[in-house]
Amino acid sequence: MRKASRMKLTNRLVAFVTMIVICAILVIFIGGALSFRKLGQDSLVHYLDGVVTVIDQELTDPQGAQALPRWLPTLLQASNVVSLSISDANKTVFDFNGNQIVPDPNIIYHHQYQLPSHPDYQVTIAAIPLYSEFTYSLGAMSSISLAILVVIVGLIRGVHWLRTQLYGSELLEERGRMILAGRVEQYAEGNDYEWPATASLALDQLIRELKDARQERSRFDTFIRTHTFLDQLTGTANRVLFDSRLQSMVQDQDSHGAVILLRLSDWEEMCTEQGKTIADELLQEISVILSNFIQRFPDTVLARYFDAEFAILIPQQSAKEIKIFTNQLLNAVERLSPPSPMEKDNWCHIGVTYFHGGDRRGRIMDEVDTALRSSQLQGANSWNSFNKDHQWDKSRGNVRWRTLIDKTLTQGGPLLYQQPIIMAEDDQLMSYALLARIIDDNGEIIKASHFMSAVEQVGYSIRFDRAVIAQTLLLLKQQSAENSYTVNVTTISLRDKQFVKWLRDELLQLPRPVLNRLLFEVSESMLVKHLDAIRPVLRVLTGLGCKLVVSQAGRTIVSTYYIKDIQADYIKLHRGLVRDIHQRQENQLFVRSMLGACANSDAKVIAVGVETNKEWRVLQQLGVVAAQGRLFAAEIKT
């Protein structure tokens, strides 16, 4: 893989130009110094040759040798000659030693001459070279100094001009670095000064096309999931999704709840008489009423089960709550004015049955159908419950739930259990998922799926999240530096300013390595619903070093564009998609769609609720990176 250069183009060119100029100045200096030295030595040799010639001519005169001491010392002393001796084969005719102070003996020039007219005479000269005692003089070197100054000023101006010309190239290079760092959205549009302009415009166009392609991919994935699991007319779940959720629910031994079936009478006659448009409008009105009513219960599934039937799956609620809900629902539907030939007092009927873990899905649907037929036999708008023993029902009102939860929070908070998340590649531990539990008055441990709806209803979500996070932070400080923990937090808490301020202050007290081991988990449906409100909070958490996990992905059908928006690190699949996935092609299609949505991001997909090796093999083949479930390890207390 090619790596981007760390040195800017401008810096490269400036360094190159500066080096060239400096090298040129050095070459000129060295060449000038050598030439100056050579010129001085040649001048000295030429001058000494002249002195020797004069001495040779003087020796031709019979009285010349006696006259040398009169004039020659003065000449030699003026010529920087340190010593001069004239000797023949037998004796020294003349000897001169100057009194100059020589700072460095190594610079003295020595030479011997043979007199042309007197071959028996030899002249030995030691002289100081010209310019050896000269120091720098501004006046003498003014031209060279001015030339160097002009070169330096020109170099500075040239470098400044070069940087100005290449500023656009630097902008384009910096933009490329940011894109490689993953900040495509912030640098999608280029600066007007970027150069080359054609490259900048081409990059803008490619980013726009990439963004459109990603959005189209997200829309296509949503389209696949919508047509696989949703009813096209009402936007509610279809029969496939409803049966899948119910099957997953009854396979959990600790689960319980109710199934409600609403059927419209005289549907075919009304379609024939009024037309499909009027019939579709009636279905849409009913679906709106049902959708608003189920908002009070978490994890509820509303589906258009047949053409004129709606099915509702309500988990983890008591029979008392179901009865109140069904009465209110029937009263709301009765307010509608059905078109003819439907009778206003006998056009909608509701059947209710209860289930618990271990029941068969087919038997549950037979029971609710039987209850609905009994309601139809009454000859009026009504509802009927299947006569079934449901000893699992441990009815608690809001007062009892409030008392139990308040007692739990007062006594130190809920119990925390941990379950490992295992990597698919090498079966190594990735992190631990923290699961909250509370103990009731009888000493039984209650799972979060049973009491979290009550926590929201009594208004204790913020207190509960605060207690769980406080225990998690304490656990992070005490445990090994290699362990990371995933903790769930509700959107109710993330929308509370006081909670966010408290959470920020607590996290700021922890070092960065500890924060890197903390993962916050948010439900997908609530995240998408309140995305604009909690997006700044999520960015603060990720900015501090924490990781973001989106849980229960696939419980509702929503667009996956939020993955790039919030830059999620992990996506946890809803356990209903994982249960018996080796036998459900539609669930495999959904997981493939989710993996495709995460392909162009850093988000990794994690499977939750893996129970069998067959499920795990299929998930590995599909491409999930990790899994959590009892196949690997059960929940253990921290």
From TrEMBL:
PROSITE patterns: EAL, GGDEF. It holds the Pfam family EAL. Residues 398-638 form the EAL domain. InterPro entries: Cyclic-di-GMP_PDE-like, EAL_dom, EAL_sf, GAPES4, GGDEF_dom, Nucleotide_cyclase, Rev_trsase/Diguanyl_cyclase. Keywords: Membrane, Transmembrane, Transmembrane helix. The keyword Transmembrane applies. Residues 255-388 form the GGDEF domain. The chain crosses the membrane at residues 12-36. This is RNase E specificity factor CsrD. It comes from Photobacterium piscicola. The gene is csrD.
